[in-house]
Amino acid sequence: MRRRPHLIWLTALSSVAGVLALAGAHAAPAAADDGEAAFRSLYRELVEINTTLSAGSCTAAAEAMAARLQAAGMPKEAMQILAPADRPKSGALIAVMPGRDPKLEPLMLLAHIDVVEAKREDWERDPFRLVEEGGFFYGRGVSDDKAMAAVFTDILVRFQGQGFRPLRPVKLALTCGEETSDTFNSVDWLLRTQPAVLEAKFALNEGAGGLLGPDGKPVSLDIQAGEKTYQDFLLETTNKGGHSSRPVRENAINELAAGVTKLAAHQFPISLSSTTRAYFEAQAKLSPPEIAADMRAVLKDPPDEAAAQRLWTANPGWNGMLRTTCVATEISGGHAPNALPQRARANVNCRILPGTPIEAVKAELQRIVADDGIRISLVGEPGISAPVPPLTPQVMDPIRKVAAGLWPGVPIIPTMSTGGTDGRFLNAAGIPTYGLSGMFHDKEGSNAHGLNERIRVQSLMDGRKFLYEVVKIYAQQKD
Q1: How is 200-263 classified by DSSP, letter by letter?
Q2: Are residues 434 and 467 in the same domain?
Q3: Which of 327, 349, 378 is the last residue of a domain?
Q4: Residues 6 or more apart from 242 whose CB is under 8 A from it?
Q5: pTM, rounded to two decimals
Q6: Closest C-alpha among 87, 70, 98 to residue 13
Q7: Model confidence at 210: pLDDT above 90
Q8: What residue numbers bound the domain in which 128 lies?
Q9: Which residue from 22, 41, 154, 248 puts its CA 20 to 30 A from 226's CA?
Q10: What's residue 33's pLDDT?
Q11: Could you say which of 321, 345, 378 is where a domain stops?
């Protein structure tokens, strides 16, 4: 059991007060217009605060967003910045706009403000300066996840400026450590130490956007419900070694290689949830005839494995939607070029379908390699297995209504994340969490985690419109 860290209460820090004048200059309370200029200023400020683990500060970004909210009229008593005592730069901002009905659970707007590392010498532009060029914004975090963080903060700024009073509370949670959960994660920490801070009816999060066609027009809008469990396994063999001039039959590298080769040839069974079934049903209506036929074939009982193999070739992401996947990602072995290896190791990364126990996957790996000399163990703490949240009318109807007004005829496609977000912690804690942004990308994507991360200016502004309207409807819903 980890020692419970002491809480740092940063709401009334003078640093927040110290930036109020700057915030006021950048973002006056929104009037009848939609305040795009103020939003751009807020977004720029957030992107240009370095929030990497190595050299940045989530607390600085949280303080800046708190100042924006306070300048818009939100009382400082409605905000708190929380971090463990031993991690003062890992602050998370929690801000709550009260509802007219205090008995209703809050709607939570969740976004992480930490970003992946970025080296200036590798980028075409300074990763910590917001650059608008050729219809795109460039910079670390412009998409993942400061686009969502800025839009969610802006929504509360606009609500404050307009005097809007929601029926249910609206809770903003700008958290830290999503990109480096093995070191620290705000959502995990808060759920373990003060879960009431994150209590909500349901939450909106990153995890889904939309697809643009070659003509730049929207093709489909995604909503993410559920995600796979991340788990690394260590495969290890040992041997007494010896002189390389006297090879023996038992060789640690050869033994491990044989096991990894068996693993490479194995496919876990196809297993569809309500979300992934709906995904392939919708994609079949948008795909070329031969692809559509294969999608319908995998929806049959039993699913057509040959069709699944063709879909895997066409798009590796589709294979990840269909089944648990395990793949070797790192390998090491031996200690000298002229000696028989005494040890060999491989890391196998698994992305496990919701509802599948980690121990069951471990047992399956042992069965596949079929060699007691290959020891298999978990790397780190067990991954979090979370249920798939239901796509109820309460969730879907506002999305359909607003999307129909902005993008008539564009289908809404349920999807499951084959990666991972902070939603896994909330779903496991019983707080249904959905990925929804309304921000469309072309097939090249946003380069999130990579060089020259980007987002279309129009996509960001459209997502801002979409989320504002959807959140306003959710905020007026009764249970």
Answers
A1: -SEEEESS--EEE-TTS-EEEEEEEEEEPEEEEEEEEEE---EETTS--S--HHHHHHHHHHHH
A2: yes
A3: 378
A4: 248, 339, 340
A5: 0.88
A6: 70
A7: yes
A8: 7-207+421-475
A9: 154
A10: 61
A11: 378
